[in-house]
Amino acid sequence: MNLPNKLTILRVCMIPFFVAALLWDEGDSQTMRVIADVIFIAASLTDMLDGKIARKYNLVTNFGKFMDPLADKLLVCSALICLIELEQLPAWVVIIIISREFIISGFRLVASDNGVVIAASYWGKFKTVFQMAAVILLILDLDVLELVSEIVLGIAVILTVVSLVDYIVKNHKVLTEGSM
Q1: Fewer Cβ neighbours under 10 Å: the N or C end of the chain?
Q2: pTM of the prediction?
Q3: Residue 119, SS3?
Q4: For the chain, where do the domains classified as CATH 1.20.120.1760 start and end?
């Protein structure tokens, strides 16, 4: 259990605290939203940090390859689902984002059965940054940032679709030929 894997586990453990803070509806809800945002930002930073440490110090493990993307999906999907509950996000946006994650996970599963690793693309990385930024802004729920939140969310949705198309185009042989 190396440091990057511990950071990944920490990210997963932070999710229930994040959700509880975000959905807290007693007392000062704005304070709880700030707490939720801080937890989400900290969890997001562990995502960036664990990968950098693993690559820099050659600490890449099968556990990390499996859990890191799963932890990311759990964090972002938890946030998006909570934002539907809070009526700040339309369900269709979340459906697009979660559908993309299922499709890419399926592609990766089929590819790995054929001994092929599908690495994260730059489009996917940009998508993640914009999704996380949109979540951070939406959690704050400040009127002064409403337009910025909508623009960042729109870019996140566009990048979600673009990154899906990019994966399909670059890796279509995984499904059509059984190998790349």
Answers
A1: N
A2: 0.90
A3: coil
A4: 1-87
Tokens of 27: 């007392």
Work out the angle between the directed axes of helices 3-23 and 62-85 (0-180°, nearest 10): 10
Among the listed residues 36, 47, 29, the one whose alpha carbon sits nearest the alpha carbon of residue 135: 36
Q: In whole angstroms, how far apart are CA 81 and each of 1, 11, 41, 136, 137?
A: 31, 17, 17, 14, 15
Angle at 136 between CA 86 and CA 41, to 5 degrees: 125
Q: Which CATH number fits domain 1-87: 3.60.21.10, 3.40.1030.10, 1.20.120.1760, 1.10.3720.10?
A: 1.20.120.1760
How far CA 143 is from CA of 30, 77, 79, 113, in Å, comes to 13, 24, 20, 48
Q: Report residue 6 as tokens.
A: 């511990």
Residue 150 has pLDDT above 80, yes or no: yes
* DSSP per residue, 44-80: HHHHHHHHHHHHHTT---HHHHHHHHHHHHHHHHHHH
